[in-house]
Amino acid sequence: MKVVLLPGDGIGAEVVAEAGKALAAVAPDVETSEHPIGLEAIARDGEALPAATLAACEESDGVLLGAVGAGDYSWSASNPEDGMFALRRALDVYANLRPFRAGAIDLVIVRELVGGLYFGERGTRADGTVFDTCEYRPDEVDRVLRRGFELARRRRGRLTSVDKANVLATSRLWRERATALAADYPDVELDHLLVDTAAMRLVEAPESFDVIVTENTFGDILSDVAAALAGGLGVAASASLGDAGPGLFEPVHGTAPDIAGRGVANPTAAIRSVAMLLEHGLDRPAEAARLDAALNRVAAGLRTPDQGGNATTAELGDAVVAALGADARQELADA
Fold it and tell me: Burial code of 136-168, b = ≥16 C-beta within 10 A, e = fewer?
C-alpha cells in the first residue's frame, strides 16, 4: 500500500512529520513518499499542484495533506490554495467527513467538497461588480446526501440536512433532493435546518446532532464551530472520499503562520487524520482503532500550548509512537 504525504506550508510540515511517524509505527508495511503542494510547490516548480505531485496522488491508496497557504505569496501569480482545490477536484473527493467527539458531543459533519461557491464561476465586471457563482447539479447533491444517509444508518439513525432554502435556489434543490432520497432510507430520521439555526443549535445543544450533511461553504463554517466546541482546530481531523480512487485526509486547521517553525503546533488532528486514512482509505480498521486509542491515552496527560500545556509537536508525536510500541509489546506478552 502506498500513501502520499503532502506537508504543504506553515505548520503543515511539522504536523505531517509526526503523523508520518505514527503511520510508520502502526502500519510499518505502508510505503510513503513526500511531494510538494501549495507555496512550497510554487517556489520550487512554479505551480501550486505540480503534475508529478498529482500523478503520485492518483497512483496512491491514500493522501495525507498538511495545510497550504502560509506566508506572503504576493510575488506569485498563483494562489497556493488553488493546489488544494485542484487536488480535491482531480480526485473527485466530494464527501468530506469531519467527526467531532468530546464529552456528550458525538457528531459527524458531511460537507460537499467539490462544488458550490468554491468552484463556481467568479470574476469582476466592467463596472467593478465582483461575483462568485454557486451552482449544484442534482446528481452532485444526491451523491453527498446518500453518503450522509448511509453514515447515519451506521450510527444513531438521525440525519440533519442544512441549507438556506428560504433564500437560495441551490438550497431549495438541496432540500428537495434530501426529501426525495429519504424514501430510500426509512430507518433514518431526516430533518431540515436553515444554516443560521443550525449554527445556533450547534452552540446551544451540540449533543442533539448525529450526522449533519450540507453544501461546501456551510460545511466549512459549521465544522469550525463544531471544532471549537470539541477542543479546537488542533484536534479536528477529516476524510475526503469519492466513489473511486484514493481519499484525501487532512487536519481541519490551517497553516498557522504565527506559530510555524516554533515546534508548538498540535499534531493531534494530523495523527487522527492518519487513523481516518487507515480506516477509510486502506481498509485497516484495527490499526485505526489502535492509533486512536494510543492518541487518546497520550492526550489525556500531554498537551501542547493551544490546550494549556507545554509539550512540543515532536514530544506529542513521540509519545504516541511510544504508546503504540507499548501496545505491541503487550500484545506479544499476551500471546
Answer: beeebbebbbbbbbbbbeeeeebbbbbbbbeee
Pick the CATH number of 1-93+242-335 from 3.40.50.720, 3.40.718.10, 3.30.390.10, 3.40.50.2300: 3.40.718.10
**Residue 199: C-alpha distances to residues 106, 143, 182, 194 (Å):** 16, 24, 23, 9
Residue 73: the pLDDT is 65
pLDDT band at 267 (very low <50, low <70, confident <90, very high): very high
* Residues 232, 225: Cα–Cα separation, whole Å: 9
Stretch(es) of the chain classified as CATH 3.40.718.10: 1-93+242-335, 97-232
| Cross-strand pairs, 131 | 123
Q: Are 133 and 149 in contact (CB under 8 A)?
A: no
Q: Is 63 exposed, middle or buried (0-12, 13-18, 19+ CB in 10 A)?
A: buried
Query: In which band, very low, low, confident or very high, does the pLDDT at 330 lie, cut at 50, 70 and 90?
Result: confident
- CATH, range 97-232: 3.40.718.10
Question: Which residues are catalytically annotated?
Answer: 118, 164, 196, 220, 224
Overall average pLDDT of the 30-52 stretch: 94
Q: Is the pLDDT of residue 40 over 90?
A: no
Secondary structure of residue 326 in the 3-state scheme: helix
Mean pLDDT over each residue of the chain, to the nearest integer: 94
> What's residue 298's pLDDT?
96
User: Grid coordinates in use for 126?
Assistant: 466592467
Spatial separation of the C-alpha atoms in residues 18 and 317, rounded to whole Å: 5
**pLDDT over 80 (residue 76):** no
Short-list 225, 253, 281, CA closest to 100: 225
CA distance linking residue 95 with residue 113, whole number of Å: 6
CA 218, 221, 225, 226 dihedral sign is: positive
- pTM comes to 0.92
